[in-house]
């Protein structure tokens, strides 16, 4: 039988390195909040004639918007992000662009005041907090008949923390390199990932519970490993089908829900890894009281695990 | 087919047929229902939020002022002829306006934000400060003294019964009547300014006629109770008359949020999300049939049942579909097969242990159930929290839409996996195909692997 738990040291090292990398990236690039969370205006315009991005930036600077962020949307259109525009300022901006580049049509306009943005950011933070606590309580409750139910909840939350950090780290890189922003769809995606990833972890824990009750082995490690192997193809197949639809969203809907699709993509991959390689292995570490030892006596658990 | 399976099977087929009947065609109403309800981002339109500034009001009159503002905006929006506009109070000092499916969004915004106040002016004399300047000269507000107070003449003193008609020469006229104070003021003013011009201004601009020239009639006689404005085009006069009758917004409103999507972009989104959903679905069907063989094909049938049922629920409730909501639905298609996969993996294990197909199906379902239940509950928890988040913020539609579609999707997927797939499998277990276990497990010939 495939030995998954025996390699837990390497999984922890890999996860640790990944998290460290993400934290460094977050420190280096930070996250770029979009207008929904930090206020401002986002104008999507299409031009009749072909317009060069550099020319557009130049013209925006001439009109007094030197700080504007410009992004091409692919079909001759551009996203222009500025500070909050009044109705009059927007009309002037559009007529300014029209006199330079010809016919301009407005495809989308989005404007958020600082008051609304700070409310949104605060409530999004609260939602993520409540979701984490809710999941911890639920998992603890679902495994209430097991010895140490709180451990199951805690290990599940640690795995979720891993997934969220990986998604945030990836977006800090995407923000630093491509200028991607954190918007409300990103927050929605993060919450969806929390729900999805915990779903995988619960299925694995469920099998551990079942196998413990069946008493297939006195050794906790053996039980966990067997449970993992038994649920492995389910975990991978479910993630695969979900990834298929996420990819369809990414390729066919594109820019508007790009953030959402990408955070799901990253989150599902990270969540699959953490629910197989992190959460159950943390349970073993806790059960065996290895907390202080995993990084000191590295070789022992790896050998010990493969007793079958 | 045994009797035990026949009834659920017939029920499933009927639900499926009903779902298809409700869903197709997507954009039209069937069975007394309207077409799929699309959010602002998909049909185009604007979502505006205003904040009322109560600082100039007397304490205690805030709620009344806000109600008044909403009433005025409602009347103004009716001028636009928008179908099903939403104008609501939000919190204590905010007003939400949602106008869907309109093409002249800028015009709509202008009309809602209009001051809708006609002011009257007289030409300034040497050294006086001007409020308006146009090609006819410099103007100041014209005033009259009422009960010792100097008041500026404006449409504030109109009765809300203006109307548009034509005079004997076929000219369009906007007719209005003064209220009591207005009558006194107008009498004073027309006496004072006899044979002089009276300028008419809308906001910062002079009111211009059909010919583009500011309207500034010469006062030819003393008038008190009523008047007419000549020279406007029929359209302008009608709109102005309606706005004047709708009254003024009693409290200053500041826009604090706006989302506007052009109808063209909205219809592009519909096409794109339809394509994403169909292609995602097809890829999953292929995967399931290749990997799980015959049960996979049954799960695929269950998945189609699922997709149509969810769409039928969206249409019948109705759930307002936004782009994010469709994202939630497409995501739920991917997640919907999860319950099937859990069951099939269990069945395979049971088959490997040497059980008969019938026994493997029953015990596969029974043993997969706790995992299906527990894992879906976490999704419901997250959906509930997302729904709360959506309801607590101004940009509520995408977040709430996503939460609603995902929750409905997951609920229906549990039903479709547990009831529909099981019924199909039971029927199959009683048929001759059941002899070939290779069709079930994906293991060639060796039932007991």
Q: What can you tell me about this protein's structure?
A:
The complex is a heterodimer of chains A (308) and B (449). Chain A has helices spanning 8-29, 35-38, 53-62, 87-101, 114-142, 149-178, 184-214, 220-253, 258-287, 299-305; strands spanning 40-47, 69-72, 77-82, 104-112. Chain A folds into 2 domains: 5-34 and 116-305, Multidrug efflux transporter AcrB transmembrane domain (Multidrug efflux transporter AcrB transmembrane fold), CATH 1.20.1640.10; 40-112, Alpha-Beta Plaits (2-Layer Sandwich). In chain A, strands 2-3-1-4 form a 4-stranded antiparallel sheet. Chain A is built from 10 helices and 4 strands, in the order ααβαββαβαααααα. In chain A, strand 2 and strand 3 (77-82) form a beta hairpin. By secondary structure, chain B is α+β, with helices and mostly antiparallel strands. Chain B has 3 domains: 3-39 and 262-441, Multidrug efflux transporter AcrB transmembrane fold (Up-down Bundle); 45-114 and 253-257, Alpha-Beta Plaits, CATH 3.30.70.3400; 118-246, Gyrase A, domain 2 (2-Layer Sandwich), CATH 3.30.1360. Chain B contains 11 helices and 14 strands. In chain B, strand 5 (132-134) and strand 6 form a beta hairpin. Chain B is elongated and about 110 Å long. The model of chain B is unreliable at 443-449 (pLDDT under 50). The chains are: A alpha+beta (308), B alpha+beta (449). Chains A and B meet through strand 4, helix 5, helix 7, helix 8 and helix 9 of A and helix 4, strand 14, helix 7, helix 8 and helix 9 of B.
What is the chain-wise order of helices and strands of chain A? HHEHEEHEHHHHHH
Mean pLDDT of chain A: 87
CATH superfamily of the largest domain in chain B: Multidrug efflux transporter AcrB transmembrane domain
Morphology call of chain B: elongated
Share of helical residues of chain B: 40-55%
> Can you list the strand order of the major beta sheet of chain A?
2-3-1-4
The CATH superfamily label of the largest domain in chain A reads Multidrug efflux transporter AcrB transmembrane domain
**Ends of chain A: how far apart?**
8 Å
Do you know the CATH architecture of the largest domain in chain A? Up-down Bundle
Q: Structurally, how many domains make up the residues of chain B?
A: 3
Main β-sheet description of chain A? 4 strands, antiparallel
Walk across the major sheet of chain B and give the strand order.
Answer: 5-6-4-11-12
- Tally of DSSP helical segments of chain A: 10
CATH C-level label of the largest domain in chain A? Mainly Alpha
User: Outline of chain A, from the CA principal axes?
Assistant: elongated
Give me the CATH architecture of the largest domain in chain B, please.
Up-down Bundle
Unreliable sequence segments of chain A: 297-308
- State the domain count of chain A: 2
- The percentage of residues in β strands of chain B lies in 15-25%
């Amino acid at each position: 039988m495939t030995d998954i738990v025996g390699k837990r040291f390497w999984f922890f090292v890999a996860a640790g390195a990944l998290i460290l990398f993400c934290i460094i990236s977050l420190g280096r690039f930070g996250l770029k909040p979009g207008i929904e969370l930090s206020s401002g205006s986002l104008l999507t315009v299409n031009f009749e004639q072909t317009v060069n991005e550099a020319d557009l930036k130049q013209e925006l600077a001439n009109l007094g918007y030197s700080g504007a962020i410009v992004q091409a949307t692919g079909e001759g259109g551009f996203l222009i992000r500025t500070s909050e525009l009044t109705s009059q300022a927007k009309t002037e901006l559009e007529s300014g662009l029209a006199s330079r580049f010809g016919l301009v049509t407005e495809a989308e306009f989005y404007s958020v005041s600082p008051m609304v943005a700070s409310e949104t950011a605060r409530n999004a933070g609260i939602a993520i907090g409540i979701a984490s606590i809710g999941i911890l309580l639920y998992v603890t409750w679902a495994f209430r008949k097991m010895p140490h139910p709180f451990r199951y909840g805690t290990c599940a939350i640690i795995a979720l923390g891993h997934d969220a950090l990986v998604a945030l780290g990836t977006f800090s890189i995407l923000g630093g390199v491509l200028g991607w922003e954190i918007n409300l769809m990103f927050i929605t995606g993060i919450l969806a990932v929390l729900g999805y990833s915990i779903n995988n972890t619960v299925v694995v824990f469920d099998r551990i519970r079942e196998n413990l009750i069946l008493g297939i082995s006195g050794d906790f490690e053996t039980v966990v490993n067997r449970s993992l192997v038994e649920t492995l193809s389910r975990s991978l197949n479910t993630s695969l089908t979900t990834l298929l639809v996420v990819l369809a969203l990414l390729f066919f809907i594109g820019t508007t829900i790009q953030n959402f699709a990408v955070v799901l993509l990253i989150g599902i991959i990270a969540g699959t890894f953490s629910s197989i390689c992190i959460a159950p292995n943390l349970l073993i570490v806790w059960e065996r009281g290895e907390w202080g030892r995993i990084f000191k006596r590295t070789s022992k658990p790896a050998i010990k695990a493969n007793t079958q | 087919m045994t009797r035990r399976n026949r009834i659920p099977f017939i029920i499933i087929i009927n639900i499926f047929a009903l779902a298809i009947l409700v869903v197709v065609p997507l954009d039209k109403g069937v069975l007394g229902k309207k077409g799929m309800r699309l959010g602002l981002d998909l049909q185009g339109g604007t979502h505006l939020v205003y904040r009322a500034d109560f600082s100039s009001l007397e304490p205690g009159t805030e709620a009344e002022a806000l109600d008044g503002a909403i009433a005025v905006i409602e009347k103004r929006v009716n001028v636009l002829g928008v179908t099903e506009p939403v104008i609501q109070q939000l919190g204590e000092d905010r007003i939400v306006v949602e106008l869907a499916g309109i093409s002249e969004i800028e015009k709509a915004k202008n009309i809602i934000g209009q001051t809708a106040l006609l002011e009257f002016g007289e030409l300034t004399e040497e050294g006086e400060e001007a409020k308006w300047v146009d090609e006819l000269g410099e103007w100041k507000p014209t005033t009259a003294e009422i009960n010792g107070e100097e008041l500026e003449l404006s449409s504030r003193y109109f009765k809300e019964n203006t109307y548009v008609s034509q005079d004997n020469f076929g000219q369009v006229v906007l007719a209005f009547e003064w209220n009591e104070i207005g009558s006194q003021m107008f009498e004073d003013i027309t006496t004072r300014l006899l044979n002089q011009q009276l300028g008419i201004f809308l906001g910062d601009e002079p009111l211009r006629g059909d010919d583009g020239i500011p309207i500034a009639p010469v006062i030819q006689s003393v008038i008190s109770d009523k008047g007419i404005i000549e020279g406007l085009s029929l359209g302008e006069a009608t709109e102005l008359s309606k706005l004047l009758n709708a009254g003024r917004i009693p409290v200053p409103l500041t826009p604090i949020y706006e989302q506007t999507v052009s109808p063209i972009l909205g219809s592009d989104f519909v096409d794109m999300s339809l394509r994403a959903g169909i292609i995602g679905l097809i890829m999953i069907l292929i995967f399931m049939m290749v990997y799980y063989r015959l049960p996979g094909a049954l799960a695929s049938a269950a998945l189609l049942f699922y997709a149509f049922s969810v769409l039928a629920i969206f249409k019948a409730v109705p759930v307002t579909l936004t782009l994010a909501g469709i994202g939630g639905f497409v995501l739920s298609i991917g997640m919907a097969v999860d319950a099937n996969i859990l069951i099939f993996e269990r069945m395979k294990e049971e088959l490997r242990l040497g059980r008969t197909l019938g026994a493997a199906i029953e015990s596969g379902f029974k043993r997969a159930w706790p995992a299906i239940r527990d894992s879906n509950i976490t999704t419901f928890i997250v959906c509930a929290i997302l729904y709360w988040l959506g309801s607590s913020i101004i940009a509520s539609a995408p977040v709430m839409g996503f939460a609603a579609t995902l929750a409905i999707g997951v609920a229906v997927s549990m039903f479709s996996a547990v009831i529909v797939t099981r019924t199909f499998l039971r029927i199959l277990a009683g048929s001759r195909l059941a002899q070939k276990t290779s069709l079930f497990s994906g293991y060639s010939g060796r039932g007991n692997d």
